[in-house]
Amino acid sequence: QQLYLQRRITSEASIGKILFANGHKLAANRGLTAAGGPELVEKRNELLRDFKELSRRLDRIRLMTLSDDPGR
User: Fold this and answer.
1) In terms of pTM, does the model score above 0.85?
2) 5, 25, 27, 53, 64 from 2: Cα distances, Å
3) How much of the chain, in percent, has pLDDT values that exceed 70?
């Protein structure tokens, strides 16, 4: 949303494209985009777990922020 507000992107739909591109770059930098066996699958699953944990933490921070805001 910040990129949209800064007019660095023209629509909010572009946010998904940017997030996907950045996620793909991260996976490529970790060597997770090539074909591979069970070891590579486990590394991909580890990245997925990391993303889920990050999402959980961000949700918790958001909820804490909302509960601390007397205007809400």
Assistant:
1) no
2) 5, 21, 24, 23, 21
3) 76
